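Section 3.1: Structural characterization of target chains.
Under the original work plan, the team committed to producing a structural model for every single-chain target entering the pipeline before any wet-lab resources were allocated. The record below documents one such target. The sequence was received from the expression subgroup and is listed exactly as submitted; it comprises 491 residues.
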Amino acid sequence: MAIRSTSASMAIAVLALGWCLNIASAQPAPPETVLPAASSEATAPDAPAPALTMPAPMIVEPASANTTAAPEPVVEAPLTKPTLVDASKINSGDTAWLLASTALVLFMTIPGLALFYAGMVRKKNVLTTMAHSFAVTCLVTIIWVVIGYSLAFTPNSPYIGGLDRVLLNGMDFFKETGKLTVSEIAPTIPESVFVMFQMTFAIITPALITGAFAERMKFSALLMFITLWSIFVYSPVAHWVWEPSGWLAARGVLDFAGGTVVHINAGVSGLVAAIIIGPRLGFGKEPMPPHNLVLTVIGASMLWVGWFGFNAGSAVAADGRAGMAMLVTQLATAVGALSWMFIEWARRGKPSVLGLVSGAVSGLVAITPASGFVGVTGALVIGAAAGLACYWGATALKSRLGYDDSLDVFGVHAIGGIVGALLTGVFAVKSIGGVESSFGNQAFGVIVTVVFSAVMTAIILGIVNALVGLRVSEESEREGLDLEQHGEHVL
């Protein structure tokens, strides 16, 4: 049955991608982009350079001003359409920083998140939990290159990108001529680096969701769910918020590194998944102690270090704003850890190691949307508020509502993301971020993200359940998913 389910899920994924490629091939070719010609002094008078014409989204360099032909009209490129530029325009410092940041953010998922989650589940489900993060990394890498990047970062409409960048169409590097494409969002780095950097965000977001339904979801269902969720939930929200033509971005919603796109999106989806799939067998009736908190501490430490690439890297430049983002990230994380620790100490008589690292993650989550907009005061307040709010979300709220969010994805990521997004509207400093913010705009962005994520996740889970089923059998759950789903176990 597991083999048939896996085959079905992969077949659905292949058919979905094939459908998208067919649509893309049917799209009419976009108009060519024409950029202003270089100075005529650079061209010999008796031998004007011929125009260099390439299919959009590449540049067309018009002929020299000395030619007798009428000059071609200059057409401005769409806001984030990639442009072919000379390699000399690339900033080596910015590029080096984004290359390092990309590696740091990928390091957050594998092995950071994999270890963080694996330490909190029971021994019989450790390998399955780690496999989720690894499989998501592989699957989303392909989805992002095939269609995800095009849907997120093509200025097709305010609501969703187009299909003209499917399979990264138009992204090129010509070593002989020294030209390469850049995105207008990050004009000082190669577009290939920008694609990779954004890919790591697309990877970690659905990987976070897996903690909500840990220890009970079929592996085949996971693969199908992640495929559909990445295309129909993550990419649209990323387009709304991070693509300058997106409707939330145009409205003034601020999200520097992923408070709404990553954390609220993943946290709300995790809650919906936990409710629809149902609680683990014995939840609330028998103890479910973490397998190895040493793994969790190591994973949390990796997340903390990797988060500097997550937040400071989102400046897409090695500049003062990146430095400020790194500073406030460190501050908010430390304060978040301490505030969770002290409130737990006061309420339960002892500070737990799990509480300390959970508080650190809550601070990291909350500062994410604000990191490029706030100063020291804002970071301190956001970190403290996140520790308190996420402690409440992972304990009192969870107990009151009775849902089984296995690894507190909603309590930490959704609650922390909401706190950070809202307080960005309070503490944003124009001299740092260069923009004004308002609490109302931030609240609107939060509400839209919560509603969209919840509704779409419920629909996708319903589709997956109808096709392959969501949950393993009771016998498999009692035996453990490591043996039942993968035929392996830890010693």
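The mean pLDDT is 88.
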